[in-house]
Amino acid sequence: MGDEGGFPPPGYAVGVVGLGLMGGSLAASLRQAWPQARILGVSRRAETLDWAVGRGWIDDGGTSLPEVLAGVQLAVLATPVRTIIEQVKEADGLLPPGAVLTDVGSTKLEVVAAMSRTGRPDQCVGGHPMCGRESRGLEAAEPDLYRGATWVLCPSRATAPGTVQVVSSLARAVGARPLILDAAEHDAIVARTSHLPYLAASALARAVAEAVPERDLRALSAGGYRDTTRLAASDVSMMLDILLTNRAHVLAGLQALQQQLGKIEQALASGDEPGLAVLLEGARQSRRVP
Q: What is the overall mean pLDDT for the chain?
């Protein structure tokens, strides 16, 4: 990690809005990667700001956007997706001329549309680092969260190349790999690779909970149940934002999953061992884990 050709210059100010897992980890990583920069945080709770300052992850901060954004050259919105969409509007009237606005939200089409409606669409680019975990809050943050992750950038037609370069530099500084992708294509893909697995895990957890008493679940479940249902422990409010801002693609994914489960159910109900074997072997061979 580190700067690229002297970027950012000394005194360059980055505002991280939202100091949860993603925002806190970003601030912590940038503190190591860009020691010459000034890192500012925005959090609703003053205690969170004090904790981040005490760790040395931010230099200062405030509990509202106006307290911070007027003095930054780069603003990163690291809040839930529907909050990001609202904050894009507010940030537009607060950021100084030339400042870049980006985000780390898990869906992109509605965020990029909001950015396109600002008075600075050339200085906005949507972003989604493909990392994170089901834990939440600043206490779960860590400087290495982004290392090795793909950081998707979704520019609009109006986004200036220099804006993409700035956010690409940010991604590389924290150890991530920038990848430029159309917002609609991004949302269609992550609906299947990220949002659908969460719903599958949630459905499985509910199906088991309705049929197996807790005492038996503890005694008779092993790694398979824990691994498969891990995502069901994700923060519900965060996932609601994601699902409702990517509804069409998630619904298409659910239909595809139901079709696959229907094929398995039909083969099992009819005792079609060869057919069931073909389905399961096809799944085994098609499973590709990066």
A: 94
